[in-house]
Amino acid sequence: MYAVKAIYDGINFKPKQPISVKGQYEVVITFLEPVAEVITDVKEMKKHPRSKFIGSWKDNIWMSEDFNEPLDEMKEYME
Fold this sequence. Notes:
The protein is low in regular secondary structure. The protein contains 2 helices and 2 strands. Helices cover 13% and strands 8% of the residues. Strands 1-2 form a two-stranded antiparallel sheet. It starts with 5 loop residues before the first strand and ends with a helix. The model has no long low-confidence stretch (mean pLDDT 77).
């Protein structure tokens, strides 16, 4: 058995890696999950506000200033 990941665009399957088999094979096609479209064009981002695009989490994640400081609970292990 040989497994290959591919993208299906509604017509064709496009392998994500080279396929090195010869001859004919019976195959099983399993649809795992939809591929998220990455939007980088600002005009397109405005049309799809909930889409996944580069920088979509900007200003939505906050971390405290002392995030990288040692925890008091771990002091005895760090000495």
